[in-house]
Amino acid sequence: MQIAIDGPAGSGKSTVAKIVAKKFNFVYVDTGAMYRAVTLYAKINQIDYEDEQEISEKIPLISLNFIPADPVQKVILNDQDVTEAIRSQEITNNVSLVSSYQKVRDEMTERQRQMTENSSVVMDGRDIGTTVLPNADVKIFLIASVDQRAIRRFKENKAQGSSATLDDIKKEIVARDYKDSHRLISPLRKDDDAIEIDTSNLTVDQVVNKILKIVKTRA
């Protein structure tokens, strides 16, 4: 079974997707982490984020793996644990650009599809239902107000010791929304057959329960 969960930054898709996957004992695929890892690879190897050609040429040298762990699934880039490194502010600010490159998206999309060949999956991202898994059994599109998403990120960042202000985070989210929805390749958008859930005033459990009910009707 394939469950696709899409939505903008801070809408809660990763948090919810992990729980849904655990409830059904499905594989969780964090596609955003894959693009972040490619962006981190560019940083580590001192490749300009705007150098599409060089980044694209290096894709075959990038090995990516997920290792189940509690509470956070580990992301392995070329045998190195980069779970925390891919969440830095620099990577966050540049991942939209790197993930907009055609060869990067083509390769990551192919790898993501391969992960579904022998397993039931819950996959979250921004183009899962529209591009990666267009025939997914269940498509969910999560939304939330910019203010609510900014508050969530602010709390997450503060817990991790970040000094970013709420206003700065709000501006970053607005900028990220624009980049994601206006890129030429696989832009962020709700597919026609996706079910939209506004998470602004819902708890994580409430969102999860809504999705569980939807999935059970399709099983």
Could you describe the 3D structure shown?
The chain is 49% helix and 16% strand. It is globular, with a radius of gyration of 16 Å. The protein has nine helices and eight strands. It has one domain: P-loop containing nucleotide triphosphate hydrolases (Rossmann fold). α2 crosses α4 and α7 (146-159) crosses α8. β4 (74-77) and β5 (80-81) form a beta hairpin. It has helices at 13-24, 31-44, 52-58, 89-98, 102-114, 128-132, 146-159, 166-182, 204-218; strands at residues 2-6, 27-30, 64-67, 74-77, 80-81, 121-125, 138-143, 195-198. With 219 residues, the protein is of the alpha/beta class. The longest helix has 17 residues, at 166-182. The strands form two sheets. It has a five-stranded parallel beta sheet with strand order 2-6-1-7-8. A three-stranded antiparallel beta sheet has the order 3-4-5, covered by helices on one side. One of its GO terms (biological process) is pyrimidine nucleotide metabolic process. Belongs to the cytidylate kinase family. Type 1 subfamily. Keywords: ATP-binding, Cytoplasm, Kinase, Nucleotide-binding, Transferase. This is Cytidylate kinase. Its main location: cytoplasm.
Lay out the secondary structure:
Elements: E1 2-6, H1 13-24, E2 27-30, H2 31-44, H3 52-58, E3 64-67, E4 74-77, E5 80-81, H4 89-98, H5 102-114, E6 121-125, H6 128-132, E7 138-143, H7 146-159, H8 166-182, E8 195-198, H9 204-218
Parallel strand pairs: 1-6, 1-7, 2-6, 7-8
Antiparallel strand pairs: 3-4, 4-5
Helix pairs in contact: 1-9, 2-4, 2-5, 7-8
Pfam families: Cytidylate_kin
Protein name: Cytidylate kinase
Subcellular location: Cytoplasm
